[in-house]
Every structure is written in structure tokens, then in C-alpha cells.
């Protein structure tokens, strides 16, 4: 067979048979097969985090506190509690799935509702339940609501405010998807039905005994909408950049960590073989942390440039905490990749990056209450803890800074151990390969090896 000549052949020419065979092997085994493996072995992490979302809605614990203990309180609390034992659709999600919240009767430790000295004390305790993430929402039916409404009807009170009857306390910024898709719409749908029932009941009672003059003097809203509710959002998810800063931005942090790994690996080729092991390890750590410092700072400044408000909960220090969170988040993800690139090489490290990215993203979108139990691993993953940090800084949600920072630092610490160990192992392998052709000069090999290490 004639040797192929450059720039002169068609793809199917006989002279290119060996090259064509190698090309197909590389495309099928090294290309398509690897991509298919990623789709079926790695991508299910993300798909699996979403497919049970509607079936797990009852895990969203919600409380009802009945301080009225009369007609209004009994009707509303019964409607909420009974909804936790059947299948309901509220215009969201497929039918025949568990589309009800996990309603429970409110208790505060050993203190029953009757133990509260006044409404404000009860409301403060309810707010603590939501603040501390013991409940997604608390519906509080204020004391003497039925009695106050009956007095208003009897006096044809023109100033009656129906929204003073019930307060719905929740925190949107805890997770805007769970609150916006389930907690708020499901709760308000039940309240509206209960309020319509109460309106019919009180109207029937009034008309049964009222004179024509009393009926004419009665304000329409007292009969058509006698009971209402007030939504109390403790932590609104109201910043224009909220989605970028709390979710999409975390993906970008991971991408920059990966790009840093690829770039520094390319830089290392120029000088790495000429350095002894200590200098090489220090170089890898130094250049990585330098990149993380400036990239995280630039990323934080970008949020500031587009009017991100970091001062709500920590004042002027909020921005520095946000930068520190990005820096540690980028370092925790990036150093893990830096440690493994020595073993996997730049050829296969993108596969590991996709695995790390998807396992982190899968636990950052929905709360754990809406995830299958296998995703509990996410509590120890960088992206989840970075997400929590950013929400606390931006919106003042539950403060677990010490725990979240601790997880990120733990990841960095593990990488600071594994990276040198893997690099030492790789250097020994390289030295052995370098000395192999010089086996006839075995006497000098120990000296060269000692100097290299």
C-alpha cells in the first residue's frame, strides 16, 4: 500500500485505511461512548433531584395556630389540617399527586396556644418558628376574631378590616421556588375557600334575623368578605440580581474554578519538570489561590456594579462576607479539581468537572424537603453551603455562617492534603520513567532521585 501524502486525499481513499480505522475507534470509543456514559451515569443526578418534587410536597411542614377557638378559628384550622389528608389540586402540578402541604397543629415546645399571654407573644413565637426554619409557614388566627366580627356586624362597622383576622407568616428567601410554587399558593387557596364558607355562614345568620333597614345599612364587605388574611413575608426575595447571586452565579463560580485548573495546568508544563517537589507543590497552591482571590473579587464587584444590596443584615461588612464566601467556594471546588487533574490529566478532568457541577447544582435548586433522601449528601457539598451563605448575607435568612464556612474550609483542607500526596506519587512515577533509559548508570540514580524529590 502506498504511503498517504498530505493534502491530497479524499476521506475514503485506500491509502488512508489505517488512519481512518484509528479515527473511527477514537470517535466511537473515546468520543461517543464517553459522552453516552456521562449522560447515563452523571446527568441522572440532576434529573433525579426534580422528578419527585410534587410527591414530596407534604414534607413542607406548615403550622396553624388557632388563638380564636370559635367559629372562625375552628373553620380555618379545620380546613388547613384536613387538607393534609387528601389529594388536592391548586392549579399547580399534575393531578393525582400529593399536592398538599404538611399541615400540623401549632405547638411551641410544651407551651399550648392558650399559654400565650397575648397575640403579639404568639406572633413573635410564630416568627421564630419560620426564622429558625422549623416551619415553612405559620397561619395564625388571632384571638377573639369571631367575637370581633360579630360585634362589627351588629354595629354595621364601616371601618371593619377583614385582614386583621389571620396572619400568614413565611420567608420567601428561604427558597423562592418552594414558597412561590407551593407554600403560598396552596395556603391562600385553602384560606380563600374557608373564607368563602365563613362569608356564607355569617351572611345566612345575619339575614335570618335582620330587618330591611339593618340590611340596607350593612356594609357590603362585612357580608361578602368578612374574613381575610395578611401575608407577612419575613425575608422577601426582592433583589433584581437574586437569581444570579444565589443560583446561576454559583454555577459560574464552579466554571471559573474549572477554567483556573485548566489554565494553571497548561502553565505548569513550561516549568514544572524543572522544579523539585516542594517548589512544584507551593507553585500549584500559590497560583491557584492567587487566581481564586482576584476572580472572586472581580465576581463580587460585578454584583456591586449592578446594584446588589449586601448591607441588609451585616451592614458594610456584608460585601466582604460575600467576597469571602465566593473565594472559599471557588477554592473548595477548584482545589478538588487541582488535586485530581494530576491523576486524570487535562483529557479526563472535564468529566470530573461535570460530575462535581451536577452533584452540586442538584442540591442547590430545591430544598431538601422536596428532594429524595439520597440527596442529603448535599449538606456537605460546597454549592449548597455557598447558596446558604449568600442568602443569609443578601436577605437575612437563618444564620448558619459558622457551619457553612466550616464545610467550605473542610473541603479546602482535604484538598490541601490530597494534592501534595498525589503530586508526590506522580513525581516518583515521573522520576522512575526518566531514569529507566539510564539503567546502565544505576549508581547515579539514587543521587538524582534524591535531588528531584
Commentary on this structure:
With 453 residues, the protein is mainly alpha-helical. It contains 14 helices and 5 strands. The chain has helices at residues 17-41, 44-50, 71-82, 119-131, 145-154, 176-209, 212-217, 220-224, 242-271, 277-305, 317-361, 382-395, 401-435, 445-452; strands at 61-66, 102-105, 137-141, 166-170, 229-233. The protein has a 5-stranded mixed sheet, with helices on both faces. The protein is elongated and about 115 Å long. The two termini are 49 Å apart. Residues 87-97 have low confidence and may be disordered.
Structure summarized in a few sentences:
The protein is built from 14 helices and five strands. With 453 residues, it is mostly helical.
Order of helices and strands: HHEHEHEHEHHHEHHHHHH
Oligomer: single chain
Low-confidence stretches: 87-97
Q: Per DSSP, what share of the residues sits in E-state strands of 2 or more residues?
A: 5-15%
**Major sheet details:** 5 strands, mixed
